[in-house]
């Protein structure tokens, strides 16, 4: 690794988890040892929460209920739009309602293993512990989970698990959970405990004397840029999958909040860990603006296959059983179609690389419900997956009850994010990061139905406890715009916007975004190699250079200007893309969603190198020109033994 | 996706020869709420039938930006029919000719040579922000008035302590699928928000957890929708016909039933 790409700094470690007690007691011990803020004092403390998805919405509502003064920010018109709304499949919880051998320890074990041994044991164990409280909380809020005839909650299985622990609300679980949090949040807004900032985008963090004390934000309707102050700042701004342009994220999902926090001192952990979801609707043309996921739950009943022979262009219904290759069932007999996402995606890529892919451009595999319909009847399949089949029909014009769905992997989730300790605090004191925006629980691969679990665990149950320990020292000194740190942040944001508007070049922000996305998909996507990553690292600075000299942003800073919003986000994606490639290049092993061509078993499975890489890579930003600094957090496995993952 | 820099500014022209559609768009342009708006005509070539309606608008905007104009503002986010952020009147129909969201409408629903009128939602309670984007915070204020179950974090009993009959859970779910897009208001000749409010009243009122606040919920939510300036419901049914999630008119019957019961029981809206 040439020195110029990065330098190595001091190791970093979590100091908050109480390591003097066994893992099952650490969360309760931490809660006991964390300092409290008495209810009368909470009124005097202000907390900014950016984002209103499952993590941000539940955190803002819970902090409001606790009596803190909360200021909530979101870029959409309503908090109910946050992209958690689109999660389809379900939410895991170790309730063991099926009596199938589930337990907190098993959920913990499955999640650490599913993350390919690159997550922090303490955080994952806590996640498994609070998973059961989440279901109780959501039921009390009126979330209409699927139920059985006896009136009890129904469950299904998801990838990477051999138990049924996934709770769901038809194919719209994220929507229903989000509305639960959203309604709780709106209730707190009505009660005057949460201040509302709709259509407002955070553009910088204000750090005063080493503490996060506020944000700079732009009102997207008036265009006005202003400062907002608090005793602590919580970022719940989601993942950065839109670096790839085409992803299952919402169009507005962006990395600006976390990236600008990174530039203010928050370390960015494991940026190269991205999840490519195996079951998405294939790309149909160059105009494509986003990709649509088909829930992983479909793999409970759908069977994945491609023709045995390449170039078999027969109608799938005319291809007899003996000419079909149900490759997941063949390669992984014990997990079959329910192998974890990274494995299912890579195998889809492999069969397409062999020329056995289906559909117009050969980039697709079949997900076939023929057997399920025969076994259960069409109406049973319709009851379980009807809305997904409708969505598929709307987008492709095809009827999946009659002909197999065509699916292909797409960027879906980012396991990397801002580094946080056990308290979910970043390397900037007073700045907490929750949900997909942090890196903490999923290691190198997230299991299905675990994102909803983590978002709500962080927001309802973890952050409201841990932030109190920090706020026990608050309220801090009052500051306003005249403070040099606030003035500097405000000026910086204004200058960047002026600069974007002044270029008036010949390419739209969208065209740069598309180019960057294509590059990242080709060179830092499902498979990465030293060669591809070096190529990307040569090209990205050129894209950045061209962007800053040739982008064309119409309109001005004042008023509603969606092109300007997009331009600012693309500028940050370009910088983040470079760090992702550096991280991917430095990690010369395969693990979970990060597959390095140089590091595989003879059968083509991901091959970890635990001797060298059993650590979290936390990157520190350095100003213009200097390479980022790598801080390693060693990962120790006390309770789950490091092993090669096997789903065979 | 555009692969090279050379062709990066030419968007959406990847349609097989002869397959692209020519369209005439008449789009509502209004720079801000204080200026009068008007319809402006644009011609578009090479539109693929597989494009979504919003992708077609993306293509239009790329052209407008390159010609030095101000692109058409429109709200959108998830583009998979679930966030409720998108929504425009297309040829006078909320979300256009199919019963789905604007983002899930595809150009195969139109013919080569069509003229398409595109306008924002029209309702006093949804003021225009710019072009096709409107302010729907009024919906959130209706939720604030009572569209929740008060269950502060940490207070919940074990999930299985209260069984919910499957029939009720399913009916609650059907009502809960409302995405708050506002098509019901836009489609209603009275610009009434009754279907939106009724969906939430039904969802929560059908569950045992929603019973304690049931009477207060309905009177307060109905009072708030009146305060926001939405029109009254005269049971026309355009709302349900335009609803991308198929929320049924039955929810409105349920709301009226609950409202009457609540008023008779003495519930009155908070002032």
Write the layout of secondary structure elements.
The complex is a heterodimer of chains A (about 650) and B (about 270).
Chain A: E1 7-8, H1 23-33, H2 39-42, E2 46-50, H3 54-66, E3 69-73, E4 91-92, H4 104-114, H5 121-141, E5 166-167, H6 173-190, E6 194-197, E7 200-208, E8 211-219, E9 225-229, E10 232-235, H7 256-263, E11 268-269, E12 274-280, E13 303-307, E14 324-325, H8 327-331, H9 341-353, E15 365-368, H10 370-376, H11 378-396, E16 405-414, E17 417-418, E18 431-433, H12 451-471, H13 484-503, H14 509-523, H15 530-550, H16 562-586, H17 610-613, E19 615-620, E20 629-634
Helix pairs in contact in A: 1-5, 3-6, 3-12, 4-5, 5-12, 10-11, 14-15, 14-16, 15-16
Chain B: E1 21-29, E2 38-47, H1 53-66, E3 89-90, E4 93-94, E5 115-119, E6 128-130, E7 133-134, H2 137-144, H3 166-176, H4 183-187, H5 194-205, H6 214-227, H7 238-242, H8 250-264
Parallel strand pairs in B: 1-5
Antiparallel strand pairs in B: 1-2, 3-4, 3-5, 6-7
Helix pairs in contact in B: 2-6, 3-5, 5-6, 5-8, 6-8
Overview of this structure, please?
- The complex is a heterodimer of chains A (648) and B (271).
- In chain A, a hairpin with a 5-residue loop joins strand 8 and strand 9.
- Among the domains of chain A are: 277-412, Succinate dehydrogenase/fumarate reductase flavoprotein, catalytic domain (Flavocytochrome C3, Chain A, domain 1), CATH 3.90.700.10; 484-616, Fumarate reductase/succinate dehydrogenase flavoprotein-like, C-terminal domain (Methane Monooxygenase Hydroxylase, Chain G, domain 1).
- Chain A is globular, with a radius of gyration of 24 Å.
- A five-stranded mixed beta sheet of chain A has the order 1-20-19-11-17.
- Chain A has helices at 23-33, 39-42, 54-66, 104-114, 121-141, 173-190, 256-263, 327-331, 341-353, 370-376, 378-396, 451-471, 484-503, 509-523, 530-550, 562-586, 610-613, and strands at 7-8, 46-50, 69-73, 91-92, 166-167, 194-197, 200-208, 211-219, 225-229, 232-235, 268-269, 274-280, 303-307, 324-325, 365-368, 405-414, 417-418, 431-433, 615-620, 629-634.
- Chain A starts with 6 loop residues before the first strand and ends in a 14-residue tail after the last strand.
- In chain A, helix 3 packs parallel to helix 12 (451-471).
- The mean pLDDT of chain A is 95.
- Chain A is built from 17 helices and 20 strands.
- By secondary structure, chain A is of the alpha/beta class.
- Chain B is α+β, with helices and mostly antiparallel strands and 271 residues long.
- Chain B folds into two domains: 21-129, Beta-grasp domain (Ubiquitin-like (UB roll)), CATH 3.10.20; 136-152 and 163-264, Orthogonal Bundle (Fumarate Reductase Iron-sulfur Protein, Chain B, domain 2).
- Chain B has helices at 53-66, 137-144, 166-176, 183-187, 194-205, 214-227, 238-242, 250-264; strands at residues 21-29, 38-47, 89-90, 93-94, 115-119, 128-130, 133-134.
- In chain B, helix 5 packs across helix 8 (250-264).
- Chain B is elongated, with a radius of gyration of 22 Å.
- The termini of chain B are far apart.
- The model of chain B is unreliable at 1-14 (pLDDT under 50).
- Chains A and B meet through helix 3, helix 5, helix 6, helix 11 and helix 12 of A and helix 1, helix 2 and helix 3 of B.
């Amino acid at each position: 690794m040439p020195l110029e790409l990065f330098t190595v700094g001091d190791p970093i470690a979590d100091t908050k988890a109480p390591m003097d007690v066994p893992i099952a007691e650490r969360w309760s011990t931490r809660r006991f040892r964390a300092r409290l803020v008495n209810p009368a004092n909470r009124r005097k403390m202000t907390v900014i929460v950016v984002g209103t998805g499952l993590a941000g919405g539940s955190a803002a509502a819970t902090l409001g209920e606790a009596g803190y003064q909360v200021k909530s920010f979101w870029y959409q018109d309503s908090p109910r739009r946050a992209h958690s709304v689109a999660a389809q499949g379900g939410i895991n919880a170790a309730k063991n309602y099926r009596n199938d051998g589930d337990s907190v320890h098993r959920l913990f074990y499955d999640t650490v293993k599913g993350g390919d041994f690159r997550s922090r044991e303490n955080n994952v164990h806590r996640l498994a512990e609070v998973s059961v409280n989440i279901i109780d909380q959501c039921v009390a809020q009126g979330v209409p989970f699927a139920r059985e005839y006896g009136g009890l909650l129904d469950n299904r299985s998801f990838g990477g698990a051999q138990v049924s622990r996934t709770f769901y609300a038809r194919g719209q679980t994220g929507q229903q959970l989000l509305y639960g949090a959203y309604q709780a949040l709106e209730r707190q807004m009505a009660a005057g405990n949460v201040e509302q900032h709709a259509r407002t985008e955070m553009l910088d963090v204000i750090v005063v004397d080493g503490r996060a004390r506020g944000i700079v934000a732009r009102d997207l309707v008036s265009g006005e840029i202003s400062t907002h102050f608090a005793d602590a700042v919580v970022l719940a701004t989601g993942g950065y999958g839109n670096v790839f342009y085409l992803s299952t994220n919402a169009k507005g999902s962006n990395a600006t909040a976390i990236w600008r926090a990174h530039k203010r001192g928050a370390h960015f952990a494991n940026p190269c860990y991205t999840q490519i979801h195996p079951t998405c609707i294939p790309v149909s043309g160059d105009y494509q603006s986003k990709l649509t996921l088909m829930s992983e739950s479909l793999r409970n009943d759908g069977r994945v296959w491609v023709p045995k022979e390449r170039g078999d262009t027969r109608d799938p219904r005319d291809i007899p059983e003996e000419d079909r290759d149900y490759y997941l069932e063949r390669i992984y007999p014990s997990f079959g179609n329910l192998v974890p996402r990274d494995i299912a995606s890579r195998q889809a890529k492999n069969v397409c690389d062999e020329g056995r892919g289906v559909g117009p451009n050969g980039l697709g595999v079949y997900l076939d419900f023929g057997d399920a319909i025969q076994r259960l009847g069409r109406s049973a399949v319709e009851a379980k997956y009807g809305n997904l089949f409708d969505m598929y029909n709307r987008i492709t014009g095809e009827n999946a009850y009659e002909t197999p769905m065509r699916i292909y992997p797409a960027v879906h989730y980012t396991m990397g994010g801002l580094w946080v300790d056990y308290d979910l605090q970043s390397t900037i004191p007073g700045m907490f990061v929750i949900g997909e925006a942090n890196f903490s629980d999923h290691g190198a691969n997230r299991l299905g139905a675990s994102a909803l679990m983590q978002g709500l665990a962080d927001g309802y149950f973890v952050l409201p406890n841990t932030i109190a320990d920090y706020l026990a020292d608050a309220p801090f000194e009052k500051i306003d715009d005249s403070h040099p740190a606030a003035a500097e942040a405000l000026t910086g944001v204004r200058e960047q916007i002026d600069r974007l508007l002044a270029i008036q070049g010949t390419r739209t922000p969208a065209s740069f975004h598309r180019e960057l996305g294509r590059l990242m998909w080709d060179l830092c996507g499902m498979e990465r190699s030293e060669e591809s990553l070096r190529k990307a690292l040569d090209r990205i600075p050129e894209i950045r250079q061209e962007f800053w000299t040739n982008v064309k942003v119409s309109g001005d800073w004042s008023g509603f200007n969606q092109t300007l919003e997009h331009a600012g986000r693309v500028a940050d994606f370009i910088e983040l893309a470079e760090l992702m490639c550096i991280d991917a290049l430095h990690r010369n092993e395969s693990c979970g969603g990060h597959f390095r061509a140089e590091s595989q078993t003879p059968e083509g499975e991901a091959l970890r190198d635990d001797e060298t890489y059993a650590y979290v890579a936390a990157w520190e930003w350095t100003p213009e020109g200097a390479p980022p600094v790598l801080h390693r957090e060693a990962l120790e496995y006390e309770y789950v033994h490091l092993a090669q993952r096997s789903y065979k | 996706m555009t692969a090279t820099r050379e062709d990066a500014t030419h968007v959406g022209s990847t349609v097989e020869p002869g397959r692209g559609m020519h369209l005439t768009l008449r789009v509502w342009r209004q720079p801000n709420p204080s200026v009068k708006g008007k319809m402006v005509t644009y011609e578009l070539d090479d539109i693929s039938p597989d494009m979504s309606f919003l992708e077609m608008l993306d293509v239009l905007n790329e052209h407008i930006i390159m010609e030095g104009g101000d692109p058409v503002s429109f709200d959108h986010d998830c583009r998979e029919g679930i966030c409720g952020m998108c929504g425009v009147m297309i040829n006078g129909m909320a979300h256009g000719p199919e019963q789905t969201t604007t983002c899930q409408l595809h150009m195969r629903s139109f013919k080569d040579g069509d003229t398409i009128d595109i306008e924002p939602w029209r309702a006093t309670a949804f003021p225009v922000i710019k072009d096709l984007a409107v302010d729907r915070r009024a919906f959130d204020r209706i939720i604030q008035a009572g569209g929740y179950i008060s269950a502060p974090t940490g207070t919940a009993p074990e999930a299985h302590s209260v069984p919910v009959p499957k029939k009720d859970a399913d009916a609650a779910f059907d009502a809960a699928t409302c995405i708050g897009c506002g098509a019901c208001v836009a489609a209603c000749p009275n610009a009434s928000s009754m279907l939106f409010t009724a969906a939430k009243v039904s969802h929560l009122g059908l569950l045992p957890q929603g019973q304690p606040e049931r009477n207060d919920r309905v009177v307060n939510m109905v009072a708030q929708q009146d305060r926001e300036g939405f029109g009254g419901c005269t049971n026309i049914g355009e709302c349900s016909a335009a609803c991308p999630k198929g929320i049924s008119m039955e929810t409105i019957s349920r709301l009226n039933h609950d409202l009457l019961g609540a008023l008779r029981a003495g519930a009155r809206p908070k002032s």
